[in-house]
Amino acid sequence: MANEKMMPFVEHLVELRRRLIIICIGVVIGMGVAWNLADDILVFIEKPLTGHTYLAGLKTRLYQEARTRFPAIYERFDTAKGTVPATPADRRLNYTAPLEPFFMQCKISLIAGFIIALPLVFYQVWMFVVPGLRAGEKKLLLPFVATATVSFCIGALFFLVVIWPVIINFSLSYETEGLRSWFSLSAYVNFCLRLILVFGLIFELPVLVLLLSRFGLVTGAFLAKNRKYAVLACAIIAAFHADLITMFVIMVPMYIMYEISIWVAYLFGRKRLSDEGAKA
User: Is residue 93 assigned to a domain?
Assistant: First the structure.
């Protein structure tokens, strides 16, 4: 009897190993595709250092507006100092180890390769759990893979385009004549890549809740009732990042995704679908 009970568990482990091997192969292939794009990705990540972001134009317009409408206040606080970074041309990443740029190229290619392989990754995840689903639920394969992939990419792009310039500009705001930034290549890239993955996963929360609600495991009412615990969970997860600014920019989007997930559960949960079927 014990052997019979162990067989399904062993079979699940074998299946899990097979799916993980396929995922690893897909990520390696994606890494090879992304290898020649690593330099372009690094240049894009470096943009906040040179001031070529939406914040630079926004700050310039705000300062010009302040100078026109409130010239006395503008001159009093010498706001013009903030219109242009002190020496943007001199800001560049630095490395101290001989092979550090090579390993950073490997890491950038690996993360980019993982993103390229996301459809395969989500497909393998779905195929692992599909034996336990009902016949109607198995038809959700294509919507799940497409929605999960798009959500992760939106989260990553949202971080790179909106949040990353804010973090770097806040750091650069502490530069003075006696205090200059000297960013390490490894620290800079590792920090950015880690947050790309974090924001990609944060934007997966509505997709996860959508699946759980369709399977009847959670409801919109349950999620709405436990908002206070969601806030606490978001704070705890965000607290793994040491600095307060990063904690804040992670916690706020995460809770916003939780609120979106509540509406997703209300709109697409199994209870709603069954009620509509009963009315029909």
Answer: no
